[in-house]
Write a structure and sequence with these properties.
heterodimer; A: 149 residues; alpha+beta; OB fold (Dihydrolipoamide Acetyltransferase, E2P); six-stranded antiparallel β-sheet; three-stranded antiparallel β-sheet; 11 strands; B: 134 residues; alpha/beta; Hypothetical Protein Ychn, Chain: A; five-stranded parallel β-sheet; 4 helices; 29% helix; globular
Chain lengths: 149, 134
Amino acid sequence: MATINGCEIPEDLLYYIERNQLTWVKVEGDRITIGATDPAQARAGRILYLRVKPVGTVRERGKPIATVESGKWAGPIIAPVGGTVVEVNTEAEKDPTLLNSDPYGRGWVVRLIPTAPAQLAELLSGEAALARFREVIAREQIRCDRYHP
Amino acid sequence: MNDTALPPASPDPTGKKILMIMTTGPEEPDKTYAPFFTAALMAAMEIDTTMFFMMHSPELLKKGAAEQIPLKKGGTLKHFVDMAIENGVHLLACAESMRDLCNLGVEDLIAEVKVAGAPTMADLALDADAVLSF
């Protein structure tokens, strides 16, 4: 686990760091789990609202897969790869602060079956991901403090 | 990759349109940011969201203006204007208000704004699933 400015970045995940997105992806067999990273939750602040596209929704890469609102930010979580929604974290929809308190665990957002698994190769991992995180965290002056309700 | 059966595709919950009519300008800063925030959220939900600026509200879209509007909660209005733009909210400024009340030309506004007249607002209102006014 790398730590940058208090932000935890697990080394066994893939990352989508484009535009305003700071998203993690975990590959588990034929499906992937997607969530917001520690710096993403820290930047947003306490998350008040999470709505995920329903099971069965087919999304192209780059299209919104969920909507998040905090007191200071509202926006989409973008599908880092195209796929079909097979599971939604309804617990996190009921209590979106799970994205703050446990971003890589109970605060996961959605599971997809990728349409084109080759797209996963375009996500960042390892040192390339850490370098990008360092850049974004420095530029946006993100400091991670976990929210505990 | 194995052959796990995919669930049937559900219709995408989009196709909705919202029109937000803005009438408040820089004279009441407290009333300016929530509409941009709400519009950003709705656009993130893939609702086709348009903000139509009339009366003195086009002044919020003047180049450099949003940076000069401080908010009680901290920061300036620019943060919320940028969020709306980033999420794809359409910004339309009323041609008549710009000319008769605000003394603004299209070149005075930030690049993301288009100028339209009252007939456009009427069409958008009739076509929208909901019209909100601020």
